[in-house]
Amino acid sequence: MRLFECQSCGNPVHFENAACLACGAHLGYLPAENRMVALQPDGPAFRSIARPEQHFLFCSNAEHDVCNWLVPEGGNAFCPACRFNRTVPDLTAPQNLDLWRRIEVAKRYVFYSILRWRLPVQDRLENPEHGLAFDFLADSQAPQGGGAVMTGHDNGLITLNISEADDAERERRRTSMNEPYRTLIGHFRHELGHYFWDTMVASDPQTLERCRAVFGDERQDYGQALQRHYAEGAPIDWQDAFISTYATAHPWEDFAETWAHYFHITDALETAAAFGIRTRPRLKEAADLAVSVDFDPYNAHSAQELIDAWVPLTVALNSVNRSMGQRDLYPFVLSQPVMEKLDFIHSLIHAGAEQQAERDMRWQTMCGPVMQAA
Q1: Closest Cα to residue 102, out of 184, 189, 20?
Q2: What pTM was computed for the model?
Q3: Pairs from 140-145 (Cβ < 8 Å, separation ≥ 24)
Q4: Residue 313 to residue 330: CA distance in whole angstroms
Q5: Helix (H, G, I), strand (E, B) or coil at 19
Q6: What is the pLDDT of residue 140?
Q7: Which of 57, 190, 268, 352 is most exposed, with minimal Cβ within 10 Å?
Q8: Which of 202, 98, 103 is nearest to 149 (CA)?
Q9: What is the model's pLDDT at position 352?
Q10: pLDDT digits (tens, 9 = 90+) for 8-37
């Protein structure tokens, strides 16, 4: 994630900000230009302080204080992230609004990456059977007679149990499942990995065969694979070839877990670059832990370029966390097979020029016309 600045006073502002803490200007994120816009009210719309001829509206979900993204005046009522919501939490339950806010923050971080790469996404109007949609549900909204809402993906529909937005409940689940890491943003990145497997891998026979060569044959019975995983656990030597224990369950889960980690690594490296973070260990024998993130991770030439910066950065950040009595920020090992899987994801995301042109057209459809940045 990049660091933004207020167009009114130049103060640093963050992706989630709706107002500048220094000058008080209204702020909104403009996805078509990847920048925060300082705004002044102008009738029912808002006018850009930096470029007064530009007028915007806030996404309709701003009325619930869950979104700070802008849409062009006269365009879609919902922003490129909120337009995929099919079901939102029952807001008659007071606690659900706060949970929904947390969910939307995590989702916008993921859509930031999707838009940066111009990944192809269809909604349920464009593709009624397999288009992307989100159901954010409490257990009381569980279909088919109640019970627990299961977080997961099914033909483009991603369901998220809103209790995952409750820190205490999510930590309880993480501990009970012996997971080193469990976050809202991780759920989104993982489940979207399943969506993009369907749209970018399964739809192309050549890509599918290359994927099978790296991740394994997904035609093995998925239900049986999960039953075996939960009954027997991961192999003892799982870290030799997988990014997580869950990745060992089935090739689909291996792909989704690796996809999520590619997002983790890229966006965290962009944050490090935005803050000018670099490491220069004082030990002579630790020269390989020196790094300066001086490139745009979203336009990295290879997965190896990302990994070469990521590994020493995580060693430093993990050490800082331990000094504060916290768990490692990144408690994972990137073995050679895992790096090869990350390289496959990198190649998939950074597709050819012709496909990129098609993505640009879809991206403009989602975000509105691209305007020249100030």
Answers
A1: 184
A2: 0.93
A3: 140/90, 140/93, 141/87, 141/89, 141/90
A4: 10
A5: strand
A6: 80
A7: 352
A8: 103
A9: 58
A10: 999 999 999 999 999 999 999 999 899 999
